[in-house]
Design a protein that fits this description.
- This protein has about 110 residues and is mainly beta.
- The chain is about 0% helix and about 55% strand.
- It has no helices and 11 strands.
- Strands 2, 4, 5, 6, 9, 10 and 11 form a 7-stranded mixed sheet that branches. It has a 4-stranded antiparallel sheet with strand order 1-3-8-7, with no helix packed on it.
- Strand 7 and strand 8 form a beta hairpin.
- It is globular, with a radius of gyration of 13 Å.
């Protein structure tokens, strides 16, 4: 069974930075698509950033220019570097790989 383990959430002031990491229990080459969603209570889950199998990156318009997704093949890890964080970025962030989801990690940005 594939597992995704997330780390790196926390609290930060507006303008600050955080890095989220997601480590998979199998090789990243096994996945067609991998990345991050986020969810605020009462709202639908929103795609933040993702890789496809050809390593094309897709970002939500709300994070373009501020967030960057990357991967480390040797560590089976996908990371999300989040800069210039805003209060509206506050959410639970979920790593996904095809149909598998991580447990979620809270990101809180205070003004």
């Amino acid at each position: 069974q594939v597992q995704l383990v997330e780390s790196g959430g926390g609290s930060v002031q507006a303008g600050g930075s955080l890095t989220l990491s997601c480590t998979a229990s199998i090789l990243l080459f096994s996945f067609n698509r991998m990345g991050w969603y986020r969810q605020v209570p009462g709202k639908q889950r929103e795609l933040v950033a993702a890789f496809d199998r050809r390593l094309r990156q897709n970002y939500s318009d709300s994070v373009k220019g501020r967030f960057s997704i990357s991967r480390d093949i040797g560590k089976n890890t996908v990371s999300l570097q989040m800069n210039d964080l805003r209060p509206e970025d506050t959410a639970v962030y979920y790593c996904f790989a095809d149909d598998t989801w991580g447990q979620g990690t809270q990101v809180t940005v205070s003004s």
